Amino acid sequence: MQNAAVNVRNQSLIIITILLSCFYPSLFAPFNSIDDVKMVNQLINVDAISPENLFFSGGSGQYYRPLLFATFLFDKLVWGVQESFMHLENVLLHLVNTLLVFCLVRQFAKAWHWDMPYLSFVTALLFGLHPIVTEPVNWVSGRTDLLAGTFVLSTILLFIRSTYQSSYLFGGAGAFLLFCGCLSKETALFVLPVLCLWCLLPPRDGSCQPSVCLRAFLFVSYLVSGLGYLLMRWHALSGGDKILRTVANGTGGSGATFGIWDIIRVGLKTAGFYCKKLILPLPLNFGIVKISPHYFWLGLLVCMGICYCLYARTTVAYLFIAAFCLVSPAFLLPLLKITWTPVAERYVYIASAPLLIALSILFVRYLQAHLPASAMVFFVTVLLSCAGFVTVKRTFIWQDNLSLFEDTVRKSPDFSAAKNELAIALSDRGRIEEANKLLLANSGNDAQPSSINKIKVFVNDGKFEEAYRLMGERKSRGAKEDKDSLDLLYLIDAQRLKSSKNDRQSREIRQEMLVILEKLHSLSGDSVYFYRIGQIQLRLGNKLAAKQSFKSAWQNSLPNCYYYEAAKKLAERL
To answer: What gap in Å lies between CA 216 and CA 201, rounded to an integer?
Structure first.
C-alpha cells in the first residue's frame, strides 16, 4: 500500500515536471490579437462589478460564462492583467485536467482490479501532451475550454466514485461542479445526457451496481443542475440569446438559411473531421475555414459507432458517447457562423479526455496480451516523444503573434481575417510597408472586424474618400458598428469635412457625424458625447438642440472634466 502511494506521488511529480517544461515557452507569449486584446481592454475599463451584474447582466448575447470572466477579474486584481501570469493560469488549469485524467484512469483500474500501475500515467501524458491542446493552453481566451474541462472531468470523477462507493456526497458535489462547468462554457452541459443515461442504464461491465435510490438521487441531482443553468442563462440573457435565436430561425450569422439536410450534411462532415483530428491532429492550424466533404463518410461511421455504443452499454461505450456529446455543439458552428472560424482545434479539448481514456482501456483489454512488454514500452515511448515534440514546437509558434499568423496564412491562404491579423503583427514589428501591401491586396470579406485595418491604411495615406467608400461597403455587408469602427468613421468624416467643396456637402457630413456621436453615446453612456453633439448642432444652426446638449453634458459630468465649464457657459449663453 505504501509502495503504491509512493508510485502515485512520483508519477504525479513526473507529469507535473514534463508538462511545465513543455509549456514553459507559453509564459513569454504576448496577448493574441484575436479576442485577447479586446478582453484585456474590457478588463482595464471595468472599475468594479457586482455579483448581480456578473451573473445576471440582463443583456443579450451568445455567451453566458460568468465564471470565466470572474477568473479574468481575478487576473486584474491580483496580477494587474500581466500576460505571463494569465498564460501561467492556463498552463496550471491544463495541468490540473491532466491530473484529473490520471485519477480517472486509476479509479477505473481500481474498480476492475487491474494491476497496471503505469496505465494512468501513460494515459495522462497522452492527454497532457496531445498536440490538440496547444490552442486552448497557449491562447489566453482559450481558458474557457480549460476551465470547463476542469469542472467536467471533476464531475465525471466524482460521479464514478459515487457509483462505486455508494456515496451521496460525491454525487451531490459532482452535480454542483457540473453547474459550475456550464457557467464556464456551454459545452459542459452536453455531458449531462451521458450521466443521466448511466443512471438509468448502468454499464453492463461495472464491477458493482449502485442501488436504485442512489441512481435516482444522481439522476435528479444532475438534471436539476442542468435545468438550473438553463434557467440562469435565460434570466441573464433576457435581452435575447443569440445562439438559440439563430438555431430556431435556421439562419446563420451571415443571413443564409439552412435546413435539415444542411444540418445532417455539415454535422456529419464536421464530426468526421474532429474524429480525425483527435487521432491524427496534424496539421495544426489556428484558422481552419475549409474541410474536405469526404469527411462526411467518416462522420457517418462515427455516428454508426455511437449507435453501437448505445447498444453495447459498457463503460468504454459510455466514455465514447461522452466524447461525442462533448464535441457535438461544434458540429453546427459552420452553419451558424458566429465564431472567428467555423472549425477549431480547441473545441475537442474536453472531448479528448474521455476518448483517450476509452482507447487506453481498449488497448489493455484486447492488445496487451498479444504484445510483448518490450514492444509496448517502445510504442508508448515513441508515441509520447512524438506528441511532446509536436506540442513543444507548436508552443514556440504560439509564443509570437507574427510566427502564429504566418503559419495560419500559409495553411489557410484564402482566410481574409488571418491576413489582417498578420498585417497587425507585421505592423507591430515595424514592418509597415509589408503590412500595408498585405492589407491592400486582401480582398476578403469586408464584414470581418479585423478588416478595419485595411481602411486605416487609406486613412494614413490621406485617401479619406476611398476610406469612406470602404466603410460604406463594410456596413452594407453586415459588419457590426462597434466603438472602434464608429470612431474611425467619425475621424474620416472630420477629414472629409475639411476638404468639402460646398455648404451642402458640409451639412450632409455634419449630419452624419451627429448620428455617429449619438450612436457612440448609446454605446458608452459617456456625457462627453453630449458636448460634442452640441458643437455640431451649433454649427448646423440648431441653437435650441445645442443648448439642451450642452446642458446635458454639464449636468451629467464631474466638475473636473475638461468640458464641464465650457458646456456650462455655452448652455447659459444659448
So the answer is: 11
Three cell numbers, residue 16 = 507535473
Residues 6+ apart with CB under 8 A from 519: 481, 486
Take residue 290 and report the three cell numbers written for it.
Answer: 475549409
Nearest-angstrom CA–CA distance, 552 and 526: 11
DSSP one-letter string for 152-196: HHHHHHHHHHHHHHT-HHHHHHHHHHHHHHHTT-GGGGGGHHHHH
Q: Which three cell numbers stand for residue 389?
A: 515534440
Q: How far apart are CA 177 and CA 149, in angstroms?
A: 11
Backbone angles phi, psi at 341, to 5 degrees: -125, 145
Whole-number Å distance between alpha carbons of 124 and 352: 11
User: What backbone phi and psi angles, to 5 degrees, belong to 251?
Assistant: -130, 125
Contact 537, 549 (CB under 8 A): yes
SS3 420: helix
Q: Is pLDDT larger for residue 348 or for residue 207?
A: 348
Report yes or no: 103 and 124 within 8 Å, Cβ to Cβ.
Answer: no
The number of residues in the chain equals 574
Which residues are within 8 A (CB) of 375 and not within 5 positions of it... i.e. 6 or more apart?
none
For 439-485, write each residue's pLDDT tens digit. 777 665 544 555 677 787 778 778 888 888 888 888 887 777 878 88
Phi, psi of 513 (to 5 degrees): -65, -35
Q: CB atoms < 10 A from the CB of 449, how many?
A: 17
Residues in Cβ contact with 518 at an 8 Å cutoff, skipping those fewer than 6 apart: 529, 533
Q: Would you say the C-alpha torsion 105, 320, 139, 77 has a positive or negative sign? A: negative
What distance in Å separates the CA atoms of residue 451 and residue 441, rounded to the nearest whole number?
A: 12
pLDDT band, very low/low/confident/very high, at 60 (cuts 50, 70, 90): low
Closest-CA residue to 357 (of 316, 324, 388): 316
The predicted pLDDT at position 253 comes to 56
Give the span between the Cα atoms of 523 and 8, in whole angstroms.
Answer: 54
**pTM score over 0.85:** no
pLDDT (0 to 100) of residue 500: 82
pLDDT at residue 84 above 80?
A: yes
